[in-house]
Here is the input.
Amino acid sequence: MTVHDVAGMLPDSPIVRDVCWSTAMVEAVLLHPDGERYHSFSASWPETEELA
Here is the structure.
């Protein structure tokens, strides 16, 4: 299997963004504020950029 095969199996960007955002929100709600989170999502970047 090549990297092109794997890339072809990935979902579209909006789906990946929604999954990343959802995972970060679940951790934010369930974990103590001082706890270490594995997932985060920053919406404070420029309109054309996002970081998950």
In short: Helices lie at 3-9, 13-30. The chain has one domain: 10-52. Residues 10-52 form one domain.
